[in-house]
Amino acid sequence: MHDERILSSPACMAEGAGFLAGREPRFAQALELCGPPPLRRREDGFAALMQAIVSQQVSTAAARAIMARLEAAGLDAPQAIARAEDEALRAAGLSRQKMRYLRALSEADLDFIALRTAPSPQLVAELTALPGIGRWTAEIYAMFSLGRADVFAPADLALQEATRLLFDLPDRPREAALRRMAEAWSPWRTVAAGMLWAYYHHAKKREGIG
Question: Which CATH superfamily is 46-145 part of?
Fold first, then answer.
């Protein structure tokens, strides 16, 4: 059983943001500009990982359209995907590679209830053992579908760019460097990510105006 805090309310986000602002002046600046980040929670389980796979390397609109076609065809549950002909999956808009990933996910028989209480390193290891699920996807699942308070996704380009801007770095930090940097933001790394995403949107909007 993991003993990580679960983000369950806006008050949790505000508590984490206050902690980070007290520890790091740059986060205090981000908090003043953007306020505490919103609580972003999604459903966990098969559908969340299926959506993550479908969304890879396509626009949000394209991913939504593919998911809608899969749902309309009744191809949104493990058993249905495992039994489906390639032609039916292709007709919904899936590439050969994504068909393989979804079949592997449908046959993996993950215990999603047990994953809710698995330590984060174990959770990430179990998910990334599946084809088509990389560390970024596993970390995003831990953050948004499970509400883990102390997970970070340093491969995320927006987080890298926001860190460069907020911390006034000469270059965008790479994944390994940002992972090390984020260790100082424990036990609220998910909230730190939320603050960085909010700051990223603030900075990009400001650039658009300028």
Answer: Hypothetical protein; domain 2 (1.10.340.30)
